[in-house]
Amino acid sequence: MTKDEADIRAIIADHAKALSAKSPDLLFAHAAPDFIAFDLAPPLLHKGAAAEAREDTEAWFATWNGPIAWEDQDLRITAGDEAAFSTSLVHMTGVKTDGAQVSLWFRSTNGFRKENGEWKVVHAHSSVPFAMDGSFRACVDLEP
Predict the structure, then answer these.
(1) What are the distances in angstroms from CA 31 to CA 6, 95, 119?
(2) Whole-model pTM above 0.90?
(3) Which domains does the chain have, with CATH numbers?
(4) What pLDDT does 127 receive?
């Protein structure tokens, strides 16, 4: 494993730690100023790691009872000199405040840029497939 790959794996591990601890500060610690996300929750595009994004994240954290578990499966990282990306299947689990048990698999792709010798997350994309039968139903019941 190269140093770049190890550094990116550490950023991805911090993401999981941030969810478990419900820490917006750690969640956005590695985000570039121009960070964007195509996340599971609306809207179609989330921009930046500023106070508004942190407030939205804190509101989402408040809908969970206890830690949120995040496990990357089949994590793959490709790193060049100044840009890198990662792909994985993610298993997110936990308990919502209404008692609902969450066990969701989805796809995750992240883009990284090296700034002053340090990797920053510039893009995060999470998605689930949808039914191609005309219903457009999100397929949240799939497992690897």
Answers:
(1) 17, 27, 9
(2) yes
(3) 3-127 (3.10.450.50)
(4) 97
